[in-house]
Amino acid sequence: MINNRLVNYIQQRDKLSPWVLQQRWYDWCRQIDDELNEAAEAITIGDTEHIASELGDVLILVFSMIARYSSFQRVFDAAYRKLRARAPYVLAKKPVTLEQELKYWIDGKAKGK
Question: In the prediction, which pLDDT does 102 show?
Answer without folding.
Answer: 94
